[in-house]
Specification:
The chain has 5 helices and 14 strands. It has helices spanning about 10-25, 60-75, 85-95, 175-195, 215-220; strands at about 35-45, 80-85, 100-110, 120-130, 135-145, 150-160, 160-170, 200-205, 225-230, 235-240, 245, 270-275, 280-285, 295-304.
Length: about 300
């Protein structure tokens, strides 16, 4: 005896099931939202050829070649650069394959030969594997006695997921000044976070998170970090911010956190806001023969 016959209730159930599938196809579920394991490469390039910086004595041509080689090997979706000559930036952009976009902002016009070019501009830059880069904008954070402008540079890119990408190079002449500048930038980021934006920031903050009991680190980086942070697993500070830092301690992480990026200090960072970044973030500092800073690599699972 058959278990099931073609009765009206069965047909109705089948029709209902077909309609449900059709509606699911027309209206994708939240699970189909865009997501990417974003690789971020942050680097203070120390474009200081001919000046009193022993670790930086290579020409812009050599530095551009080293950067391009690193990008080819690591294949990041987003790159944040500081202390770079416009000539170095242009050579890097010219060496990359189609599909990259970039934006350079001059924070200083040099009066020496460090850039080995008729273009003496020097500053910070963004690169991304994105179809377009739109809405670039800068916020002045402070001005050095030399005339260098400490600046927060941001632009909209889409690396599978749309995001506001930013970079900065904070002052090295005053810890209190760096803390103030970091707080100003964090307040700006928080406005975008409140508007449900995805924000990814890479930069040289000149604040050493490996150093505990430092008021300037606490006040400058506290508004960035979500939860406790500082000196790897020790976590000697309490953050009030919305950001995960790629090389920050987490349960299940790689066991090595807050790696040195300048001497025995960590002053370079890759941040992504927790509202659009999962908790599986990861990071490491590599090494460089063309700068006194080590490149910082970050992995962030970013989603809509």
């Amino acid at each position: 005896m058959p278990i099931c016959r073609g009765t009206r209730p069965a047909r109705a159930l089948a029709v209902t099931f077909v309609l449900a599938v059709a509606l699911a196809l027309v209206h994708p579920s939240a699970a189909s939202a865009a997501s990417i394991r974003l690789k971020v490469w942050d680097f203070n390039a120390c474009d200081q050829y001919g000046r009193n910086f022993p670790d930086c004595q290579v020409t812009p041509t050599q530095r551009a070649s080293a950067i391009t080689s690193s990008l080819t090997s690591f294949s990041p979706g987003l790159v944040t650069l500081q202390e770079t000559c416009r000539s170095t930036f242009d050579m890097v952009v010219g060496s990359l394959p189609p599909g990259w976009v970039g934006y350079f902002f001059s924070t200083y016009t040099t009066t020496d030969s460090r850039c080995q070019s008729v273009d003496h501009t020097w500053g910070i830059a963004l690169l991304a594997q994105s179809a377009v880069l739109t809405n670039p904008g800068t916020t002045l954070l402070g001005t050095e006695t030399s005339g260098e402008q400490r600046t927060f540079l941001c632009a909209d890119v889409t690396v599978t997921v749309g995001m506001r990408a930013c970079t900065t190079h904070l002052t090295s002449t005053s810890q209190a000044g760096a803390a103030s500048q970091a707080t100003t930038a964090a307040n700006l980021v928080n406005q975008w976070v409140a508007a449900n934006a995805t924000v990814v920031v890479g930069g040289d903050f000149n604040l050493n998170v490996r150093q505990c009991s430092n008021t300037n680190v606490a006040t400058g980086l506290g508004p960035w970090y979500s939860g406790t942070f500082g000196h790897g697993k020790v976590r000697c500070y309490s953050g009030t911010g919305s950001m995960y830092e790629a090389d920050h301690y987490r349960v299940g992480g790689d066991g090595i956190y807050d790696e040195d990026t300048l001497g025995d200090s960590k002053v370079d960072y890759v941040f992504g806001n927790r509202q659009h970044v999962n908790t599986d973030f990861d990071g490491d500092a590599t090494s460089s023969s063309v700068s006194d800073h080590d490149p910082l690599r970050g992995w962030l699972t970013v989603h809509d």
